[in-house]
Design brief:
Layout lengths: L13 E4 L2 E4 H5 L3 E6 L6 H12 L1 H6 L2 E7 L3 H15 L7 E3 L4 H5 L14 E6 L5 E7 L7 H16 L2 E2 L10 E3 L5 H8 L4 E4 L2 E4 L5
Parallel strand pairs: 3-4, 4-5
Antiparallel strand pairs: 1-2, 3-6, 6-7, 8-9, 9-11, 10-11
Length: 212
């Protein structure tokens, strides 16, 4: 089984979910996507994560991002778990959860790590662009919940750098200065970004966020 890497095409699949049978590519359409896996239903950290992801819906919608989750439990387990999430997290899950009891999708995305657990998925995150290419991969241990503010920050960076010739520095957040792409000569940088290019070093040039 090949290990997925950045820039690879995200594997397509059709699966049963809490919102019916879905084809992954059809579900994404021309949106960005987040596919994230959970070790099991009725686990404490996962319960908080699904509730948090649901509460971030407006932020994901604003960025044209669709969210889909996965665990290796069957559909009836997912449906019962949704009730617990609604009760404890004070929100309804508003995105599909894949029922991957046969581990078909988990294997496609290399979510089973035998050194962590032979049967349960690790806490994986895949961010996928509209071109269906994998833009980011994160893997968390089962004990550590994901930071959804960081996922938003990463999506902001990925979307900015996909459409502008810039990169984002450490701890960057939307609206802060960005780095001019090293591939852009300084005269061209001034043509693209005007007189606001700040040259700290020939290879390190800052400019205001072009989307701010």
């Amino acid at each position: 089984m090949a290990v997925l890497r950045l820039g690879d095409t995200a594997p397509d699949f059709t699966a049963e979910t809490t919102q019916g049978t879905l084809n992954f590519y059809d579900f994404l359409g021309d949106h960005w996507g987040i596919l994230f896996s959970h070790p099991a239903d009725f686990t404490p950290v996962c319960t908080t994560e699904l509730g948090t992801a649901a509460k971030f819906k407006d932020e994901f919608d604003r960025r044209k991002v669709k969210v889909i989750a996965l665990s290796v439990d069957p559909l009836d387990s997912h449906q019962a778990w949704l009730q617990d999430i609604a009760e404890t997290q004070d929100t309804e899950v508003n995105f599909p959860i894949i029922a991957d009891a046969d581990r078909k999708v988990s294997d496609l995305y290399d979510m089973i790590h035998p050194k962590a657990n032979d049967t349960l998925t690790v806490r994986s995150v895949f961010i996928i662009g509209p071109d269906k290419k994998i833009k980011l991969i994160l893997t968390y241990p089962a004990s550590t919940g994901r930071n959804f503010y960081e996922l938003l920050r990463v999506i902001d960076s990925l979307q900015l750098t996909a459409y502008h010739k810039v990169a984002t520095p450490a701890n960057w957040e939307h609206g802060q200065k960005v780095v001019v792409s090293p591939a852009i000569p300084t005269p061209e940088a001034h043509t693209l970004f005007g007189d606001q290019v700040e040259e700290l070093k020939p290879y390190l040039r800052l400019t205001p966020d072009p989307t701010a």
